[in-house]
Every structure is written in structure tokens, then in C-alpha cells.
């Protein structure tokens, strides 16, 4: 009898700890302001629950760089699997960096031997399209691709 009570109580304590450790994110925590300003949001608790679920599921998404990521878009300026694709992709990336120093470029590799150069971190197609027009003047075969991008606060 004592053994059953001990097992049940241990189960309850562990399950309570697991539920507590998942955490809960309130909307006001996401919009903290600097300078001591207070933000008061009045809303249903179900919205906080949905936001917590979204943040938790998004934290599992990883980018090719290994950081936490979110769904977004990048502009692909090179994609090839020819024998010297690695060298060509490095040349294309160097050319891109010299012409567009304000935009971030990423060399990527995909099995079984595809080398790519992708540019930028865009949340929407509209943001992506603005730079795509500029890039197509130099790289006419450039196009947007949907991929996982790094969070804006993780930019280097």
C-alpha cells in the first residue's frame, strides 16, 4: 500500500514538474519596452496559449546555419551541380558581395552535390521582391525560394 502511494505521488510530482518546465509566454513578455515604459495588453488567455504554442513549435525549426529559424524567403542567385560548382559558387558569391555589400549571402550545399548561393533573410515575398528587382539587374537568373531563415535578432 505504501509502495503504491509512493509511486503515485512520484508520478504526480514528475508530471507537474514536466508541465511547469514547458513554460508559458505572455504577449506582454514579447513586447517589452526599453526605458521603463509599461505595456498593458488586455486579451483572452487563449491568445497567450496560442502564442506560446507557436513560439515553442518555431523554436524547433533549425536553419542550415544551425541557428533557430522561422519560415521565410531568400533569393537564390546560383544553383549548379557541375564538376567545378564549388569554385563557381565561390566566384559568384564574391562577385555578389562586391556588388551588394549591404546584403548577406549564404553558400549552401545540398546532397548529392548541388552548390547554391542564397541571399538575405526575408519574412515576406514583398520584402524579398524589393531586393530581387535590384539583384536581377546583375544576376538575371535570380529567383526567390522559400526556406528557413534566421530570426531577425540573430543577424551577425
Beta fraction of the residues? 15-25%
Compute the separation of the termini in Å: 60 Å
Strand order of the largest sheet: 2-3-1-4
Q: Mean pLDDT score, rounded?
A: 78
The CATH homologous superfamily of the largest domain corresponds to: Sporulation related repeat
Count of separate structural domains: 2
Q: Which structural class matches the secondary elements?
A: alpha+beta
Which helices and strands, and how do they pair?
Elements: H1 2-21, H2 27-30, H3 45-58, E1 69-80, H4 85-99, E2 105-110, E3 114-122, H5 125-136, E4 143-150
Antiparallel strand pairs: 1-3, 1-4, 2-3
Please describe what this structure looks like.
The chain has 156 residues and is α+β, with helices and mostly antiparallel strands. It folds into two domains: 2-58, no CATH class; 70-154, Sporulation related repeat (Alpha-Beta Plaits). It is built from five helices and four strands. The protein has helices spanning 2-21, 27-30, 45-58, 85-99, 125-136; strands at 69-80, 105-110, 114-122, 143-150. It has a four-stranded antiparallel beta sheet. The longest helix has 20 residues, at 2-21. The radius of gyration is 23 Å and the shape is elongated. The N and C termini lie far apart (60 Å).
Amino acid at each position: 500500500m505504501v509502495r503504491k502511494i509512493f509511486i503515485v505521488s512520484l508520478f504526480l510530482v514528475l508530471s507537474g514538474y514536466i508541465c511547469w518546465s514547458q513554460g508559458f509566454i505572455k504577449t506582454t513578455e514579447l513586447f517589452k519596452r526599453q526605458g521603463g515604459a509599461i505595456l498593458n495588453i488586455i486579451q483572452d488567455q487563449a491568445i497567450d496559449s496560442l502564442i506560446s504554442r507557436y513560439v515553442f513549435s518555431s523554436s524547433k525549426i533549425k536553419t542550415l546555419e544551425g541557428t533557430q529559424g522561422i519560415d521565410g524567403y531568400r533569393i537564390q542567385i546560383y544553383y549548379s551541380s557541375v564538376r567545378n560548382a564549388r569554385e563557381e559558387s565561390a566566384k559568384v558569391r564574391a562577385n555578389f558581395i562586391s556588388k551588394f555589400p549591404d546584403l548577406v549571402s549564404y553558400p549552401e550545399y545540398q546532397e548529392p552535390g548541388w552548390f547554391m548561393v542564397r541571399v538575405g533573410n526575408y519574412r515576406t515575398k514583398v520584402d524579398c521582391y524589393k531586393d530581387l528587382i535590384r539583384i536581377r539587374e546583375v544576376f538575371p537568373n535570380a529567383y526567390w525560394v522559400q526556406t528557413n531563415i534566421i530570426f531577425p535578432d540573430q543577424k551577425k
